[in-house]
What we know:
By secondary structure, the protein is α/β, with parallel strands linked by helices. It has two domains: about 1-120 and about 295-320, Medium-chain alcohol dehydrogenases, catalytic domain (Quinone Oxidoreductase, Chain A, domain 1); about 120-265, NAD(P)-binding Rossmann-like Domain (Rossmann fold), CATH 3.40.50. Helices cover about 30% and strands about 25% of the residues. It contains twelve helices and 15 strands. Helix 4 packs across helix 5 and helix 4 crosses helix 11. The protein starts with a strand and ends with a strand. The mean pLDDT is about 95.
Amino acid sequence: MRRWLVKDLGEPKQVMELVEVEPLTARPGEVVIDVKAVGLNFPDLLQIRGGYQVKPSLPFTPGAEIGGVISAIGDGVTNWSVGDRVVYMGRGGLADQTTAPASAPLRISETLPFDKAVSIPTNYGTGLFALRERAQLRAGETLLVHAGAGGVGSAAIQLGNAMGATVYATAGGPEKKRVCEQIGAAVAIDYLAEDFVERIKEITDGRGVDVIYDPVGGDTFDRSRKVIAWDGRLLPIGFTSGRIADVPTNHILLKNYSVVGVHYGASVARDPSSATRIMELLCRWYDEGKIDPLVMKHVPLADAPQALEDLGARNSWGKLVVTP
């Protein structure tokens, strides 16, 4: 079987090596998953560069959003059968096979394609946790989603609509702006061509928006504070800009808004059963047509390093999915 290994830290095309290894066997308490799809995410790239808070020991195989079929079961495993369709949030996805603790995978329905399934645990799981649990977004409120054409942002746009909000989005360039409009943004703003602060003030008659979903950070976070409404909630989701912003507490006080932390992975670690409940709800919403993960491209396993660099250069929208 094939497996990508990161033997040193740096840019993917420079430090990743595709190697041949023996097929995997299931140890007690484990299952083997034949990988059918792997969703690529910005944290994968940061891990390869050495810039992520979770730093696996070298060498390691990246790829955390894994969809596939269980092909072998270790001793003591009673909750799975060979042939079960699953998604698994773990590690080692950029390979033909990976292993997982039997308690870790989540079951998916026959109606959910693997390429869309791998978009759900991280992007939609984070979005639902952020908007429903942390921001308590209500029907009739307004939501601004930054980087709306990306995997994280496109999920938030669809979830906001599913929850009854009016959704605005920012994106870089006319193509990405059209993507946001096509998936449900009431107004999409090309931040390369216009000032999103002035545009949001115009759209909302100066009131601002109730909830801001920000996976970008840096200057985007700083400027978002100018359009947060009274009693608003500003959600830091990530820092793809590379800079972690600071927020003056006097501004929070004067505008009576909240900056609400979102760490979905840590929340699931504290309550593992919550991931199952969220996945079941999101699968139901997919079947009902409320969400539909946006997949830009299917990438062969051999082209994974280039796809990761495209992700880092923002040369993509929606989800890049590796299909071994």
